[in-house]
Amino acid sequence: MNKHGLLALLAVASAALLAGCGGEKSASTFTLTGSGLSSDLNGKYVYVFAYSREPIDSVLVQDGSFKLLIDSVSTSDVYTISDRVTGSAAFVPEAGTAELRTETGTFDGALVYSVTPENGLNTQISEFSKRKSEVENPLLARHQTWFEQWQKKDSLPAEEVKKLEAEKQLIDSLYMSEMNTFHQKEYEANKDNLVGAMIFGYLPFENENDFITRYEAASDAVKNYYFNRENYALFKKSASTDAGAEFVDVSMTDDKGVTKKISELWKPDTYLLIDFWASWCGPCRASMPHLSKLNKTLGDKLTVLSIGGLQETPEQNQKAREELGMNWTTFFDAESKAADVYGVTAIPNLVLVSPDGTILVRTNDPAEVDAKLKEAGLL
């Protein structure tokens, strides 16, 4: 199962120190220029992002142009530059100069090419992006055509709606197949460089252990790429807290500064069901009636503990708990320490622990929890 999109969403951001936009260019400086931008961008800033959603640098657009200087160069990670409205372009802050090129006057579809060195990393990444678009755009166009038809479903006969549902499955399957084939081919051709490092996370992996094994056998370029490093660390934690492992206690602090260990919220001599969830997660919300039923019927044998805090505010979490009638034990983990220790890569994430501290099952599916509870004679 490929969990790259969500892994990229949960990866912990790391700050990078970049210099301002002035001063003379040195041998270790990266310069990015852009021109031909729409007059709508004049007097506005465009922003540089490293690994997080927060900008780490910015530069003003004047007369449809900008010039960005970065003193801390790197050849192991990919940054982006964006106006935060029309799109973004990827680039590597390698020593030398590069140019942002756009055919629309905006950042939509913009690409960055190396000027010196002539065929540097930025050129390689831009050419890869073009090849990817040639494969992906027809697939996305087909999905868009389907979506336009789907919007009219309320006025269509039931048979037509069923045909559209079947067509959606076909379109999704074709997209996955075509993109997997593309990424596999590109990875084999670039597994020793930064393009291959970017692609690695999009490869289809059977499970966390498959990712770990392939990462450990990969090139240094793949291993040094930020998101690959973060995902590897996350998967290692996930694998170490899988079924058969010992329960790991964690100290969590909520938004009011109250610190609790998981063990302090676990009723003695009971099974423990840890539910990692968030207010914005649809499948998490959908599983709450099931958890409520378990809490009600097995209250003296099972402690249900729902831990929130993943990319949500305390207010959002509190509102969701009230809406969902979550009257069992909950905790708002303000720094998501428990999710980090357990290497949570997707939610809902359910961890069932026996009274002796052995993890019996770890899953996204409540039915698998029920199966283990039946094995234990509780259901």
Distance between the termini: 30 Å
- Rg over CA atoms, rounded to whole Å, is 24 Å
Query: What is the strand content?
Result: 15-25%
Which structural class do the helices and strands define? alpha+beta
Strand order of the largest sheet: 13-12-11-14-15
Number of strands: 15
Helix content: 25-40%
The SSE order reads: HEEEEEEEEHHHHHHEEEHEHEHEEH
What does this structure look like?
- The chain is built from 11 helices and 15 strands.
- It is of the alpha+beta class.
- The strands form 4 sheets. A 5-stranded mixed beta sheet has the order 13-12-11-14-15, with helices on one face. The chain has a 4-stranded mixed beta sheet with strand order 4-1-7-8.
- Helix 2 packs antiparallel against helix 3 (158-190).
- The chain starts with a helix and ends with a helix.
- The relative contact order is 0.09.
- Residues 1-26 have low confidence and may be disordered.
